[in-house]
Amino acid sequence: MANPYRSSEGLSARPVLTGSADEVQLRIDPVHADLDDEILSLQSQVSQLKNVAQEIESEAKYQNDLVSDLQRLLSNAEAGVKNGMKKLNRTVTQHRSNHILQVIVFGLMCFAVVYMWTKVWRR
């Protein structure tokens, strides 16, 4: 009976029955494969995985730095908007008071002009 974990290349992975899920068990068939080639292939794959892991780590660090900068920028913008709203509220309140004063002065001037006009025409 043939072994189900053997491949024609001489290297096969078999399912992990015990242990953690991140373990990989390999069986190398010395009859059909060159052990040195398999080891070199595995070493190159490990080095490639290490390079990928370093790239992922540097990208994650860059993304974290970017998020931190954006959060700081957002908090600065929020503080600037709050200060701007306070100034705007003060300006609106001041202009509203000035506007009411201008309406009152205009009304008094109109009343004075009408009063003077009626005094002049009565004579």
From TrEMBL:
GO terms for cellular component: endoplasmic reticulum membrane; Golgi membrane. Keywords: Coiled coil, Endoplasmic reticulum, Golgi apparatus, Membrane, Protein transport, Transmembrane, Transmembrane helix, Transport. Residues 29-91 form the T-SNARE coiled-coil homology domain. Belongs to the BET1 family. The lineage of its organism: Eukaryota, Viridiplantae, Streptophyta, Embryophyta, Tracheophyta. It comes from the Eukaryota. This is t-SNARE coiled-coil homology domain-containing protein. Residues 32-59 form a coiled coil. SUPFAM superfamilies: SNARE fusion complex (SSF58038). Required for vesicular transport from the ER to the Golgi complex. Functions as a SNARE associated with ER-derived vesicles. It is found in: Endoplasmic reticulum membrane; Golgi apparatus membrane. It is a single-pass type IV membrane protein. The chain crosses the membrane at residues 100-118. GO terms for biological process: protein transport. It comes from Linum trigynum.
